[in-house]
Specification:
Layout (H helix, E strand, L loop, with lengths): L2 E7 L4 E7 L1 H11 L3 H19 L7 E8 L5 E7 L3 E6 L10 E8 L6 E6 L5 H13 L3 E10 L2 E12 L5 H11 L5 H17 L1 H6 L3 E3 L2 E2 L5 H8 L4 H11 L2 E5 L4 E5 L1 H7 L3
Parallel strand pairs: 5-11
Antiparallel strand pairs: 1-2, 1-10, 2-9, 3-4, 3-6, 4-5, 6-7, 8-9, 12-13
Helix pairs in contact: 1-2
Length: 275
């Protein structure tokens, strides 16, 4: 089961997030038929999206992370919402490589006031790129250690630990956070051994007793639907849609996130426009 544990630790000066996203990554592998390299990259970014979605305040909030790698390496895109519905896809030409290019984050509060932040990729490591994003775009000291472990084409462990310093964090508590993060250098190994629950009890045992832990259950889920696709194609007008059907036999709209083709026949268009 996917989990996101959140809490304030060290005199409530440090925000802690512990994620277990193994099932989510395996669902992405199944949806997109990913090779291991692509699964590691997309899985890491899905984990980051689950973290960011878990930080959203508005019920209508949403977040997206888009990586445009250098040259012809391709694109990776993930998104999530306040309900913990996380989805993503990786361009087949990307081959799991993030060297060069940019990482862009769009946070939508649900009231048409999106925040957009961009930073250059600093290498192929998802954790390092997310830390650089927070440093350059949001100026929030953030320690990130997320990872994905594959075995035999299947994800056996995915998740990680993320800590953010709150404004005014003391030097003592900063040192505590930095020291504790050293235990999660190999995030996927730690998730495989302990799971999210075990990480809390083993490394942050006081939270298990305090009741200060907030837990959500993100999942790989696309928000597309037949009705939403109808809303997308209807502005094209009946004449244009019938023209497409005459030329191609049907109107086909592909959703990259769930790898699904939504197909509309002439009868469907008749019904859409009540003809």
């Amino acid at each position: 089961m996917n989990k996101l544990h959140k809490a304030l630790i060290y005199d409530m000066q440090v925000s802690l997030s512990v994620l277990e996203t193994t099932d989510m990554v395996n669902e992405a592998i199944k949806t997109h038929n990913l090779d291991e390299k692509s699964a590691v990259t997309l899985g890491g970014l899905l984990t980051c999206a689950a973290y960011m979605a878990g930080c959203l305040k508005s019920e209508r909030g949403a977040v997206s992370i888009t990586v445009k790698a250098g040259g012809e390496a391709g694109t990776v895109s993930v998104s999530g919402d306040k309900d913990g519905h996380i989805r993503g896809y990786i361009d087949g030409t990307c081959d799991g490589k993030l060297n060069g290019g940019t990482l862009t984050v769009i946070k939508d509060d649900g009231f048409s006031r999106p925040f957009v932040g961009t930073c250059e990729l600093s290498g192929n490591d998802v954790s390092r790129n997310l830390m650089q994003y927070y440093d350059k775009s949001e100026q929030i000291p953030t320690a990130v250690s997320v990872g994905v472990k594959m075995r035999g084409g299947k994800c056996v462990a995915a998740g990680g630990v993320i800590m953010q310093l709150m404004p005014g964090t003391s030097e003592e508590n900063t040192d505590k956070a930095e020291e504790r993060m050293q235990a999660f250098v190999d995030a996927a190994d730690v998730v495989e051994k302990y799971g999210a629950d075990g990480i809390i009890t083993t490394f942050f045992g006081e939270l298990s007793q305090s009741g200060a832990l907030y837990t959500t259950f993100p999942e790989y889920k696309c928000n597309c639907s037949r009705s939403k696709i109808e809303d997308v194609i209807k502005p094209l007008g009946a004449a244009e849609l019938y023209k497409i059907i005459d030329e191609e036999g049907c109107v086909k709209v592909h959703c990259h996130y769930c790898n699904t083709d939504h197909v509309f026949t002439k009868t469907d268009i008749d019904e859409l426009f009540k003809i």
